[in-house]
Design a protein that fits this description.
The chain has 138 residues and is α+β, with helices and mostly antiparallel strands. Helix content is 21%, strand content 33%. It starts with 5 loop residues before the first helix and ends in a 5-residue tail after the last helix. This is Transposase.
């Protein structure tokens, strides 16, 4: 049987639209799908001096993504870190920016934020009443 390629997995999970590619996946004991990925084309420029940095290592950032086939998804994004060798720059190590994937300090992806907002716009007043009164049998 042919092995699943990253391109196929990226297409099915739509990770390319986030700017990441899948490197691995697993189903956890918590019934969550864990997708391990790395940033495509990371920005190597130092945020202080704007000069390209040298690759140093990667740090993991775990983000909740939109459900896949009804199961919760956690993205484990390997975010590259770089070293700035500019002598007059105050920053020595920095992470690649991933604003296109998630806002700073956010725990959900930007597309999950959009997904939640889209779901909220379809909730009507009667839906809220039904939810609020479901145990009251009003």
């Amino acid at each position: 049987m042919a092995e699943l390629t990253s391109d196929v997995a990226d297409t099915i999970c739509r990770t390319v639209e986030l700017g990441v590619t899948i490197t691995g996946a697993a189903v956890g004991a918590d019934d969550r799908t864990h997708i391990f990925c790395e940033v495509l084309d990371p920005d190597r420029r130092c945020p202080d001096c704007n000069m390209a940095g040298q690759p140093r290592d990667r740090v993991a950032r775990v983000l909740t993504d939109t459900p896949a086939v009804g199961h919760p998804v956690l993205l484990h994004v390997a975010v590259p870190r770089f070293v700035c060798h500019t002598s007059d720059c105050s920053r020595s190590v920095f992470r690649a920016r991933i604003d296109h994937i998630a806002r700073a300090r956010a725990v959900v992806t930007t597309r999950t934020e959009r997904w939640i907002l889209q779901r909220l716009t379809f909730i009507t007043d009667s839906d809220i009443l039904d939810f609020a009164c479901c145990d009251l049998r009003v």
